[in-house]
Automatic annotation (TrEMBL):
The lineage of its organism: Eukaryota, Metazoa, Chordata, Craniata, Vertebrata. Signal peptide: none annotated. It comes from Macaca fascicularis (Crab-eating macaque). This is Popeye domain cAMP effector 2. It is a multi-pass membrane protein. GO terms for molecular function: cAMP binding. SUPFAM superfamilies: cAMP-binding domain-like. Belongs to the popeye family.
C-alpha cells in the first residue's frame, strides 16, 4: 500500500505544472454549457425525469462542442462532447418511441382515469389488464342482445364503456346497466374456473353501446398469476354486484310499497310470470286448507247441537292467538313467505309479487 502511494506521488511530482494561468476567462458558451450540465444532473427519476435529465445533458454537450470548436480549438474536446451529445439525443429518441408505443386508446385512457386512477392502480398493471382483452373495443347496436337467457354460455367478462343495457328475465324488466359497470359480474362470480353455465337473464342494448370483454380462460390465468390484479377484480366485482342488488331492492320498494331487505335468504330474483302462474295454485291450495276447518261444524249431529251454550269448550282446542301489534306494523319476509295470506295484508300480498323461497327466516 505504501509503495503504491509513493509511486502515485512520484507521478504527480513529475507531471508538468501550469507555468502560467490565463488572465482572461472562457467565453459565455463554456459557462452556459456547465450551467446546463448542472441542471441536467439535478433531474429526478421516472419517465419525465429521464426527459429532463437527457434533455439538459444534450443541450450542455452541444454547447461544449461549440466551445471546443470556436474557443478552445481542441479536436479532442469537440469529439468527446459531440459523442456524448449524440448518446443523449439517442436516449431521448428511445423514450419518445416507447411513449408512442405504450399510448392507450382514448376509450382505455378514459377508463383508467374513471375506474382505476381513483384506486391508485399503477399504469403498468392497468396495461397488463388491457393487454388481456387484446385492446379491442366491441360494439352493440340498438336492440341487439348481448346474452340470451338459457342459451348464451358464460365464457367471458365484459365491462360497458358507453350506452345503456337492459336486463330482463322471462320478459320482465329487472334493472339497467350503465357505463363503467360490469355486464355479467353475477354470472362470473357464480361459477368456478372449471365450471360451465349459461346466462339466467337476457341483456339487450337499448342504445348503441361499446364494451370491452375479457375471455374467461385468459382472465383466470392472469388472476392466478398476479395477486394484486386478483384483489383488484374482487373489489370491483363485489362493488358492482352490490350495486345491482340494491337496484333490485329499490325496484321492489317502488312496486310493492315496502322496503325489502335483500340480505334475507328468503328473497331472491323477481320472477313475474312464475309468480303469476303460481298464484292460482297457491289460492287453490289455501281454499283446500280452509275446507277441513269449516267441515266439522256441518257434520255435527243434532244431538250435539242441543247442548247447553254454557258448556265450556274442550280443553284440547287451542285457537291461535292473534298477531301482536308490533308484528302487524312491519311485515317481514317470514309473513310474506307464508302460504296463508293475512287479511290485514291482502292488498300487499297479491298476484305478481316477488316469489319467496319456501324457507322461513327468523325475525331480525
Amino acid at each position: 500500500m505504501s509503495a503504491n502511494s509513493s509511486r502515485a506521488g512520484q507521478l504527480l511530482s513529475q507531471a508538468s505544472a501550469c507555468v502560467s494561468w490565463k488572465q482572461d476567462v472562457e467565453g459565455a458558451v463554456y459557462h452556459l454549457a456547465n450551467c446546463l450540465l448542472l441542471l441536467g444532473f439535478m433531474g429526478g427519476s421516472g419517465v419525465y425525469g429521464c426527459f429532463y435529465f437527457f434533455g439538459f445533458l444534450s443541450a450542455g454537450y452541444l454547447c461544449c462542442v461549440l466551445w471546443g470548436w470556436f474557443s478552445a480549438c481542441g479536436l479532442d474536446i469537440v469529439l468527446w462532447s459531440f459523442l456524448l451529445a449524440v448518446v443523449c439525443l439517442l436516449q431521448l429518441a428511445h423514450l419518445v418511441y416507447r411513449l408512442r408505443e405504450d399510448t392507450l386508446a382514448e376509450e382505455f385512457d378514459l377508463l383508467y382515469k374513471t375506474l382505476c386512477l381513483p384506486l391508485q392502480v399503477p399504469l403498468q398493471t392497468y396495461k397488463e389488464i388491457v393487454h388481456c382483452c387484446e385492446k379491442q373495443v366491441l360494439t352493440l347496436a340498438t336492440e341487439q342482445t348481448y346474452a340470451v337467457e338459457g342459451e348464451t354460455p358464460i365464457n367471458r367478462l365484459s365491462l360497458l364503456l358507453s350506452g345503456r343495457v337492459r336486463v330482463s328475465q322471462d320478459g320482465q324488466f329487472l334493472h339497467y346497466i350503465f357505463p363503467y359497470q360490469f355486464m355479467d359480474s353475477p354470472e362470473w362470480e357464480s361459477l368456478q374456473p372449471s365450471e360451465e353455465g349459461v346466462f339466467q337473464v337476457t341483456l339487450t342494448a337499448e342504445t348503441s353501446c361499446s364494451y370491452i370483454s375479457w375471455p374467461r380462460k385468459s382472465l383466470h390465468l392472469l388472476l392466478t398469476k398476479e395477486r394484486y390484479i386478483s384483489c383488484l377484480f374482487s373489489a370491483l366485482l363485489g362493488y358492482d354486484i352490490s350495486e345491482k342488488l340494491y337496484t333490485l331492492n329499490d325496484k321492489l320498494f317502488a312496486k310493492f310499497g315496502l322496503r325489502f331487505d335483500i340480505r334475507l335468504p328468503s328473497l331472491y330474483h323477481v320472477l313475474g310470470p312464475t309468480a303469476a302462474d303460481a298464484g292460482p295454485e297457491s289460492e287453490k291450495g289455501d281454499e283446500e286448507a280452509c275446507e277441513p276447518a269449516a267441515s266439522p261444524p256441518q257434520a255435527t249431529p243434532t244431538s250435539l247441537q242441543q247442548t247447553p251454550p254454557c258448556s265450556p269448550p274442550p280443553a284440547a282446542t287451542n285457537f291461535p292467538a292473534p298477531p301482536s301489534r308490533a308484528r302487524l306494523s312491519r311485515p317481514d319476509s317470514g309473513i310474506l313467505a307464508s302460504r296463508i295470506p293475512l287479511q290485514s295484508y291482502s292488498p300487499v300480498i297479491s298476484r305478481g309479487q316477488a316469489p319467496l323461497a319456501p324457507t322461513h327466516t327468523p325475525e331480525l
